Amino acid sequence: MEINVLFDADFEKSINEAWLRSVATVALTAEHQADVEMGILITGQEKVQRLNKKYLGEDEPTDVLSFAMGDSDEDGTPDFVFPEGDALHLGEVIISYPQAQKQAHEHKHSTRQEVAILLIHGVLHLLGYDHDEPERQHKMQAKEKAILKLVAEELN
């Protein structure tokens, strides 16, 4: 398992890189994913809003974006073909650290917990979970809660 963590310049000291890797590892392991790789970017609201507008057509800030490499065209053809035998690159999770801080304050918990929630949410999106319908939303939320509990048990 390989988890690449990047920080935009203003956020390099915002949260521990090894801890982020550990949260992602717990989430991936809980979903029985071993031979995979993914990226995490911690950035600001402006970049997240630009990406949200450019790729999702939403000109508004958001807390987390996930860009899955496993997506396919309408005809089922994969957007990207991976060499056989290499670890599967799941995609990228991009977190707005200022939005995480704001939401942590609103929910009365730590920014670290909010980042964990957002990262777990993003990882689940990379794995194909979605919340576009009530049943799928319920399933995804249940997974998020279960993984957050594992993170609390293993990393705190």
Description:
The chain has 156 residues and is an alpha/beta fold. It has a single domain (2-155), classed as Metalloproteases ("zincins"), catalytic domain (Collagenase (Catalytic Domain)). It has five helices and four strands; from the N terminus they run E-H-E-H-E-E-H-H-H. The protein has a four-stranded mixed β-sheet, with helices on both faces. Strand 1, helix 1 (17-30) and strand 2 (36-43) form a beta-alpha-beta unit. The longest helix is centred in the last third of the chain and has 22 residues, at 134-155. The protein is globular and about 35 Å long. It starts with a strand and ends with a helix. The model is unreliable at 72-78 (pLDDT under 50).
Show the helix and strand layout.
Blueprint: E1 2-7, H1 17-30, E2 36-43, H2 45-56, E3 64-68, E4 88-96, H3 97-107, H4 111-126, H5 134-155
Parallel strand pairs: 1-2, 2-4
Antiparallel strand pairs: 3-4
CATH homologous superfamily designation: Metalloproteases ("zincins"), catalytic domain
User: How many β-strand stretches?
Assistant: 4
Beta-sheet strand percentage?
Answer: 15-25%
Give the domain tally: 1
Report the span from N to C terminus: 22 Å
Structural class: alpha/beta
What is the class in the CATH system?
Alpha Beta
